[in-house]
Design a protein that fits this description.
heterodimer, A: 440 residues, alpha/beta, D-Maltodextrin-Binding Protein, domain 2, 2 domains, six-stranded mixed sheet, four-stranded mixed sheet, 18 helices, 14% strand, B: 301 residues, mainly alpha, MetI-like fold, 12 helices
Chain lengths: 440, 301
């Protein structure tokens, strides 16, 4: 008898714990600023409050609550996220099961497809064309899945092909304008020309690595795109014939040529470019700020991203970052859409730039920030982003595509694996993950 | 009499209860759920579409090259770490036991890495192992070519294993040191009267006296090495070419990055069963010895 009582007590406690975690109902007055008659909108963001990014989001939300006083009230919750992506995404995953998702949440650009395909986020309410036109094309494309707009980003990002002006001047190399980038074969010649000069400086022509993680696909997928290749089909559900196409094999071989000819170090050396021992470097837009503030001796320039000899002039440069989306659970889609628009809008973009030096996502924000007109390097990055920005592969199995790409690149360029078989192996791995989406 | 017994039970339950509740919530329920999930295709993003798939996951797993690779990588880690850390700890303990000056200094010096966070230690060693880092500079001065260390598929695993040994060895050293100091000096005095050599003293007195500790160190080091994840995560991301991808890392990535909770649970179960089997084998092997040891002691006494 006692045992039964004990057992049921424990069970009760457990149930209490489990149900306690489920979504809470908030009434007017519970949260400061939430008044009678307002629609309550919960919002999750992927950072803590104390970071510059968190501060920017907080300011945006305050602006929203002021502008929509009496109509909507947005309640922001900051959820920490670690570098490998845990924390925030764990919380989202757990809430998918328990049903505690907020009305609006942030989603990393490449994950929009997976979240949309699995019904975690829903298409936004109709947004008039003129309001959509405010956003960079890459942002609209990143947020679109299956023809519907799901997410709008406040941040945009890009990768620059940075060069050391002094070194290129010494070698007598002229950098082309944005619409006539160096082609692969031209670039190889330049690297060959720079090789002895850089050897003298105990460096390499290129400061380049193929790091594990998101960076590899982000930096080097443009080589795939400019060569007319793709990593996945348009619907994101087929990789065979795309990932392992002949064009992509050619691209992989190009990286191998760069490694084999000693234009880059096979083992990553830190601060090669920053210490003046490399002529070129691929890195995120943040590198400009780093160089300006920490390495003023480097005479920095941004060259247009190298293109394949087969480039057709299409979009090919890296883009993408965190975006806002309405969760499938929200009962206030109109309000959620307003909040998404506000959080990703011009004003929010300016906050983001001012506080974090991340690129904003709207033409309006770029216009308001003077440095994108006055500074040639920021201007070059902005032009590259707005004219040639290409979103990362849109597929529900993006994480697997990303790791497979890095793996193939490393195996082929550094590990000496046969190109075709390395790519086929990747296709096999991605297909295993795609199974779930294809069979249903 | 009866009443007292009853109140004892209640008291016992009162003490035991909170722990039991917490253990149930944070240990037993997750364990059972993991077992259940391992037979499903549970996908974190669409939990509503979960089906029972029987042993399908288990079949898939043993055909998955990456899983097998992560498994063997982990075994390799254990095989390097176990002897190095076990013998290293014993060696250090013996040395420190002999040292007459600055004993405290050496103890602290070897123990400090244990206290440091693994992530910090890993970042530190990334600098040490970097192509132009301190280790390569020393090698260069000795006329040896620069080594890629964590950037090469063949050297990354041993490099990380050695770093882990350095990080963990201090803990076992302290345990051995305690054991050494607990040995009755009379035993050594008696041996000296019999003109025993240092080696004989070590072999016939020190080692047998330390045996129970050896067992403890053996098991804890093994289990610790099997759980390797932080070092490769911070230093190499499991690369190059998955050469430092461990089981736990694989479980983590499958579950959180690729959202495949079902498969990740299966991995966890297979991993747990493997470690359990090893532990049982270890305890069978070591129990006999312990018994003998105790018997001998009893006889001697």
């Amino acid at each position: 008898m006692k045992k039964i009582i004990l057992k049921s007590l424990i069970l009760l406690l457990v149930m209490g714990f489990l149900t306690g975690c489920q979504g809470k109902k908030v009434s007017p007055g519970d949260v400061e600023g939430y008044d009678e008659g307002e629609t309550y909108l919960s919002l999750w963001v992927h950072t803590i409050e104390d970071t510059p990014e968190g501060e920017a989001y907080k300011k945006s939300v305050e602006g929203f609550n002021e502008a929509y006083d009496g109509v909507y009230f947005a309640d922001i919750e900051f959820i920490p996220r670690n570098d490998s992506g845990g924390g925030y995404s764990d919380k989202v995953n757990a809430s998918v099961m328990s049903g505690g998702l907020p009305d609006v949440l942030t989603v990393d650009g490449p994950n929009v497809s997976a979240y949309a395909a699995n019904g975690i986020i829903q298409p936004l309410a109709e947004i008039p064309e003129e309001e959509k036109a405010v956003y960079l094309e890459s942002i609209i494309e990143q947020g679109t899945y299956d023809g519907k707009l799901y997410a709008l980003g406040v941040l945009e990002s890009s990768v620059g092909m940075y060069y050391n002006k002094d070194i290129l001047e010494e070698a007598g190399i002229e950098v082309p304008d944005a619409d006539h980038p160096w082609t692969w074969s031209e670039f190889l010649e330049i690297l060959e020309q720079l090789k002895p000069i850089m050897a003298e400086k105990n460096g390499y022509a290129l400061d380049m690595t193929f790091p594990v993680g998101e960076a590899s696909i982000y930096y080097y997928a443009p080589f795939i795109w400019s060569n007319g290749g793709d990593l996945v089909s348009d619907d994101g559900l087929t990789v065979d014939g795309y990932f392992n196409s002949d064009a992509n094999a050619e691209t992989m071989e190009y990286f191998k040529t760069i490694v084999d000819n000693g234009y880059m170090s096979a083992t990553p050396i830190e601060f090669l470019f920053e210490s003046g021992r490399a002529a070129f470097k691929f890195d995120g837009a943040w590198e400009v700020n780093t160089i300006y503030t920490s390495y003023p001796d480097i005479n920095l320039g941004v060259a247009p991203y190298v293109v394949s000899d087969n480039w057709d002039g299409g979009r090919y440069t890296p883009t993408g970052s965190w975006a806002y989306a309405a969760s499938a659970n929200t009962e206030h889609l109109e309000g959620a859409t307003e909040l998404v628009k506000w959080m990703s809008g011009v004003e929010s973009g300016v906050y983001i730039w001012n506080l974090t030096k991340n690129l904003p996502s709207t033409y309006g924000a770029f216009e308001q920030i003077e440095i994108f007109r006055t500074d040639e390097n920021y201007n070059a990055l902005y032009n590259q982003l707005s004219t040639y920005g290409h979103p990362r592969p849109k597929t529900p199995v993006y994480p697997q595509v990303s790791t497979s790409f890095q793996q193939a690149l490393e195996d082929i360029a550094l590990g000496g694996m046969e190109t075709k078989s390395a790519l086929d192996k990747s296709v096999e791995r991605i297909n295993a993950k795609l199974e779930r989406y294809v069979r249903e | 009499m009866m009443k007292k017994k009853k109140s004892n039970t209640i008291m016992g339950m009162a003490f035991f209860g909170p722990a039991l509740v917490l253990l149930t919530i944070f240990l037993f329920i997750p364990m059972i759920l993991t077992l259940v999930f391992s037979f499903t295709d549970y996908f974190a993003l669409s939990p509503n579409l979960t089906h029972f798939v029987g042993f399908e996951n288990y079949g898939k797993l043993f055909k998955d090259e990456l899983f097998l690779q992560s498994f063997f990588n982990t075994v390799k880690f254990v095989l390097i770490i176990l002897p190095c850390q076990g013998l290293g700890a014993l060696g250090l303990a013996l040395l420190i036991n002999k040292v007459t000056h600055c004993k405290k200094y050496f103890k602290v010096a070897f123990f400090v890495p244990v206290v440091m966070s693994l992530a910090v230690v890993s970042t530190l060693w990334m600098q040490i192992y970097s192509p132009e880092g301190i280790l390569n500079t020393i090698l260069g001065n000795l006329g040896i070519n620069a080594q890629p260390f964590i950037h090469s598929a063949s050297q990354a695993l041993p490099s990380i294993a050695l770093m882990s040994v350095w990080q963990g060895v201090g803990y076992q050293m302290i345990i051995f040191l305690g054991g050494l100091q607990a040995i009755n000096p009379a035993l050594y005095e008696a041996a000296e009267m019999d003109h025993a050599s240092s080696w004989q003293k070590f072999k016939d007195i020190t080692l047998p006296e330390l045996k129970p500790l050896c067992v403890f160190v053996f098991i804890t080091v093994t289990i610790g090495a099997f759980r390797m994840i932080v070092q490769p995560m911070v230093m190499t991301g499991g690369g190059p070419s998955h050469s430092t991808y461990t089981m736990v890392y694989n479980i983590y990535e499958t579950g959180t990055v690729n959202w495949e909770i079902g498969i990740a649970s299966t991995m966890a179960i297979v991993f747990a069963i493997f470690v359990m089997i090893l532990t049982v084998i270890q305890s069978i092997l070591t129990r006999d010895k312990e018994d003998k040891h105790v018997n001998k002691k009893a006889k001697n006494g």
